[in-house]
């Protein structure tokens, strides 16, 4: 049985999300330090709602309509949204895109 590709894929997605965040927020994101799976969008990155929308658009351009950041946020209560991490988003994307590939492949 082959190893689960999700963890490796999640690492790749984390790097892609980091690149997207730099394009949305700007180079000042790099001052914050390394973006890790534990980095929160609210406390660590202080993303504003307009930046979430821009990130959502980039995610859909890269991964397709199956990755709906705004839909994911709509499923969460305010405390969950405030605590959401970059790693949580990366796992969500890996799971959704793997499921989407399984359905089409």
Automatic annotation (TrEMBL):
Pfam families assigned: PP-binding
InterPro entries: ACP-like_sf (IPR036736), PP-bd_ACP (IPR009081)
Domain Carrier: 22-82
Superkingdom, taxonomy of origin: Bacteria
Full protein name: Phosphopantetheine-binding protein
